[in-house]
Write a structure and sequence with these properties.
The chain is built from 3 helices and 7 strands.
């Protein structure tokens, strides 16, 4: 055993001896209430007037002071927040002012939706590139000039990009298809 274990064992035996053979007689004295002194702060004039108005004898109950008199109204005293005593304060910077609205400002022109296709692969067949595209559960094999559902037309296939035109708005979009392998 280590000396530490021996010391803890001796302390345990001593504590057990005190429990078994210690003085168990109750104390005959009664504990008296201790009069506490109030914290040192400037007394409130309203609270002093309220306590002087009602004589405080033994067992007398003083009248309650309304909360508005104790704390004060919102914005009064040191509590200058809108929420009174428990008001919070935000340390975040104020949001930027909204941009000035112009009545002559036209809405932005409409744009084509993002391409709904996912690139699956590409191959060179008969001297032309074929690109395999997926949309949901459909798979499309496209070459230059192919139209998809009458909405998209493949204009050019030049790795690493595939150029398509969104036909309803005649806007050109590109899809990354990787480099030549």
């Amino acid at each position: 055993m280590k000396p530490r274990h021996l010391l803890m064992g001796a302390a345990l035996v001593g504590a057990a001896a005190l429990v078994l053979f210690g003085d168990r007689t109750p104390s005959a004295t009664v504990a008296e209430a201790v009069e506490r002194k109030p914290a040192r702060s400037a007394p409130d004039a309203r609270a002093v007037a309220a306590t002087q108005a009602a004589p405080a004898g033994p067992g007398a109950i003083l009248r309650l002071v309304p909360r508005d008199e104790l704390i004060g109204a919102v914005g009064e005293g040191s509590f200058k927040s809108k929420d009174g005593v428990f008001g919070g304060q935000s340390w975040n910077p104020p949001p930027p002012p909204p941009p000035p609205e112009s009545r002559n400002q036209a809405p932005p022109p409409p744009t084509a939706p993002p391409l709904p296709f996912q690139f699956l692969g590409k191959a060179a067949a008969d001297g032309q590139w074929e690109v395999y595209l997926g949309r949901g559960e459909q798979t499309f094999v496209v070459r230059k000039g192919t139209q998809i559902d009458g909405v998209y037309r493949v204009d050019n296939i030049a790795p690493p990009t595939l150029t398509m035109t969104y036909l309803p708005m005649n806007q050109v979009q590109q899809l990354h298809i990787g480099v030549i392998e």
